[in-house]
Amino acid sequence: MRQIVLDTETTGLNPKLGDRIIEIGCVELLSRRTSDRNFHTYLNPEREVELGATRVHGLTREDLMAKPKFADIAHEFLDYVRGAELIIHNADFDVEFLNMELGKLGLGKLQDHVARITDTLLSAKELHPGKRNSLDALCERYFIDNSRRTMHGALADAQLLAECYLAMTRGQESLMMELEAPAAAAAAAAGLILDVSKLIVQRASAEELAQHEKYLDAMEKDAKGASVWRRLLAS
Questions:
Q1: Which of 75, 113, 128, 152 is catalytic?
Q2: How distant, in Å, are the alpha carbons of 109, 121, 187, 193, 201 from that of 196?
Q3: 66 contacts: CB under 8 Å, gap ≥ 6
Q4: How high is the pLDDT of residue 107?
Q5: Do 57 and 31 meet the contact criterion of CB atoms below 8 Å apart?
Q6: Do the beta carbons of residue 109 and residue 102 sit within 8 Å?
Q7: What is residue 178's predicted lDDT score, i.e. its pLDDT?
Q8: Residue 213's pLDDT is what?
Q9: CA 68 – CA 30 distance, rounded (Å)
Q10: What does the alpha-carbon distance between residue 205 and residue 1 come to, in Å, rounded to a whole number?
Q11: 113: annotated active-site residue
């Protein structure tokens, strides 16, 4: 199943009071890797942008006057997300805005077009109860560089969330390998053996190894015990 990491920016916090979406950013994940098929657009909200919102994302009504309206991109957006799992941080917020915009056009709800919606804020709270679980907090916890995040932006934040999500769900990689094993066995039986003798092995740099050790330290602190990786190395 395709996975789409999604984020929005808005004119304010309450669609029931007329606030609108001004930016949509989406990053596609295929087999737990980001693809180059993103979806990104700014939107003309046809209303003022609240000062508090501008302080968060830096966008004003004047910046958005020449941008398309949601109605202009609605079908392209739905074609992009159709059938995928959406991954959203604090999903209720974005979904309420998107449902409001789709409802105005008679296009139903977002849930009608996608396979499911996963809220990474809820997932993070389950993994790290009692801790801060904002996007910035997750970046800090999983050693993801967010130093350029001086302002919020839908596409940039979706890219950061994609990295956080992959870090949060690393255990799923072994499951994917188990699911792919029968296909590999079938290929071998058919004589489709890959020649790996010419593959280039890219060794980790000293900086990458240091980051790996820092990640293991943090993981062991949360788990209050030694990681499997280090136990295997010790044995």
A1: 152
A2: 48, 41, 15, 9, 10
A3: 44
A4: 98
A5: no
A6: yes
A7: 46
A8: 84
A9: 29
A10: 33
A11: no
Cβ count within 10 A of residue 116: 11
Q: Look up tokens 């008679």; give the residue.
A: 106
SS3 90: coil
Tokens of 211: 């980051």
**Ramachandran region, residue 18 (left: φ > 0; alpha: ψ -120 to 50; beta: rest):** left
For residue 176, the model assigns a pLDDT of 47
41 φ/ψ angles, rounded to the nearest 5 degrees: -155, 145
What gap in Å lies between CA 51 and CA 71, rounded to an integer? 25
* Centroid of chain to Cα 67: 24
CB-based contacts of 5, cutoff 8 Å, min separation 6? 26, 27, 28, 29, 86, 87, 88, 158, 159, 161, 162, 165
